[in-house]
From TrEMBL:
Keywords: Transcription, Transcription antitermination, Transcription regulation. InterPro entries: NGN-like_dom, NGN_dom_sf, NusG-like, Transcription_antiterm_RfaH. Pfam families: NusG (PF02357). It comes from the Bacteria. CDD domains: NGN_SP_RfaH. Residues 1-100 form the NusG-like N-terminal domain. The gene is rfaH. SMART domains: NGN (SM00738). NCBIfam families: PRK09014.1 (NF006534), RfaH (TIGR01955). The lineage of its organism: Bacteria, Pseudomonadati, Pseudomonadota, Gammaproteobacteria, Alteromonadales. This is Transcription/translation regulatory transformer protein RfaH. It comes from Pseudoalteromonas marina.
Length: 161
């Protein structure tokens, strides 16, 4: 009878461990989270592991190659509960498999969010995020002399509240 087990990978080696297990004929996966971030002022979309450093592997509970899994490149060890390897219920695996491509998380402000501008011209000025202006800049609404004005600002100068 096959069961899913939780395995701890070496840091940032989930993909390497999964590929090595697949090359040995074992089924393995880890759910992926797509995030949108600002990196050096540029909008980037990255895919990262939903559970960093963890991987799920399907093995025969009686005759599975547990030693081969432990010795696979990128694998640290099995997660244990007492003396037993941690078995993951099939319902959780099915849920993660069905929802892995639909998970999107954005760490960028949305239209109408309150932000602060912090550059040489404007120090700690409150503003409202309007929209992106290319990859490196954003358009903000600020109050100048009791009038709301649009201003394009470098993303590195925006502090999210």
């Amino acid at each position: 009878m096959e069961s899913w087990y939780l395995v701890m990978c070496k840091p940032r080696q989930e993909e390497r461990a999964k590929a090595n297990l697949n090359n040995q004929g074992m089924e393995a996966f880890y759910p992926i989270l797509t995030t949108e971030k600002l990196v050096k002022g540029r909008r980037t979309v990255k895919q990262v592991a939903l559970f960093p450093n963890y991987l799920f592997v399907c093995l025969d509970s009686k005759n599975g190659p547990f030693a081969a899994v432990k010795n696979t490149r990128g694998i640290g060890s099995f997660v244990t509960y007492g003396a037993n390897y941690q078995v993951v219920p099939l319902a959780i695996i099915e849920y993660l498999n069905n929802h892995k491509s639909h998970t999107v998380e954005s760490q960028l402000p949305k239209q109408g969010d309150a932000v602060s501008v912090n550059n040489n011209s404007f120090k700690n000025i409150d503003a409202i995020y309007k929209e992106p202006d290319g990859d490196l800049r954003s358009i903000l609404l600020i109050n100048l002399l009791n009038k709301q004005v649009e201003m394009s600002v470098d993303n590195t100068d925006i502090e999210f509240s």
